[in-house]
Design brief:
Order of helices and strands: HHHHEHEHEHEHEEEHEEH
Largest sheet: 7 strands, mixed
Shape: globular
Number of helices: 10
Number of strands: 9
Number of domains: 1
Structural class: alpha/beta
Strand content: 15-25%
């Protein structure tokens, strides 16, 4: 049943994606009360919005995520045009980093369309790998892996991903790591929207241990096109106290993510249980 649905979505014309996203996103917002409550609570506590405003923003976030899903399914059809869909600020920073390092960690978030951002990077000629949490559905997992493969993106499983990340970096890959989701107790707690949030620490560890460049990169939608921004590398300041250095570096990364989410709050994953 899933395969025919994916095929039909892949055949949709671009003009149908936006209205269908609004329609289905609004329905899903109503049919998923638990996720709706999580989103509304996260927005209220993070942005200080009232209940009505929080609900409106939560609904737009659901609609946005449905649209991201449609766009990812359609990605193989538009790969040849992916670079034309983006206006990227700071691309020169990416090129400069390329000249100084064999590989790098690209710090991303679930803002805008991160899959399209990865495909854009691969289309520029960079060897790209992405750390991912595979979908639970076997069909969905195979489909998204195939989509990424066609886009020229290697995938590294988030579970036990450190050796895979190190191998990719040694091979000169540009490894995309999402830094905005809840992680295990083995990681580090930093402030995110003024509240403690468990955050993956692999980027800080690799930067401190091997001098790997940390390149923050973000995307967001503007109409039917996208904007991207490559920020200056995150500064790493070793003090001799490894635990403090990891926490401080991760906090700097998290601060940049928060700043970008505040600019485009309707395009972030508010229904995720980020604070636990």
């Amino acid at each position: 049943m899933i395969r025919p649905i994916l095929f039909l979505i892949g055949c949709l014309p671009q003009s149908a994606v936006e209205p269908l996203s609004w329609f289905l996103g609004s329905i899903i917002y109503r049919l998923m009360p638990r996720r709706r409550r999580i989103a509304v609570r996260n927005i209220s506590q993070s942005l200080g919005m009232g209940k009505v405003e929080s609900k409106r923003l939560a609904r737009r976030s659901f609609i946005h995520m449905v649209r991201v899903g449609f766009e990812v399914i359609r990605l193989p059809r538009i790969l040849s045009k992916i670079r034309d869909l983006f206006v990227v600020e700071g691309e020169n920073r990416l090129r400069e980093a390329c000249g100084k390092a064999k590989g790098a960690l690209v710090l991303v978030s679930h803002l805008g369309n991160w899959e399209y951002g990865a495909a854009w990077m691969a289309a520029t000629g960079l060897p790209v790998a992405m750390v991912v949490r595979p979908p639970s559905s076997r069909v969905g997992r195979r489909y998204i892996e195939n989509v990424r493969q066609k886009a020229g993106i290697e995938t590294i499983s988030r579970q036990g991903g450190l050796p895979g990340i190190v191998r990719a970096l040694k091979a000169g890959k540009w490894v995309l790591v999402a830094m905005d989701q809840h992680t295990s107790k083995n990681d580090v707690t930093v402030e995110f929207f003024g509240r403690p949030a468990r955050t993956v620490n692999v980027a800080a560890i690799l930067a401190l241990r091997y001098g790997v460049p940390l390149v923050p990169a973000f995307t967001w939608r503007e109409g039917s096109r996208f904007r991207g921004e490559i920020l200056p590398n995150v500064e790493v300041k070793p003090s001799g106290n490894t635990d403090d250095d990891i926490r401080e570096t991760t906090q700097r990364i998290t601060d940049k993510i928060e700043q970008m989410i505040r600019k485009h709050p309707d395009q972030w994953l508010w229904m995720h249980r980020r604070w636990r």
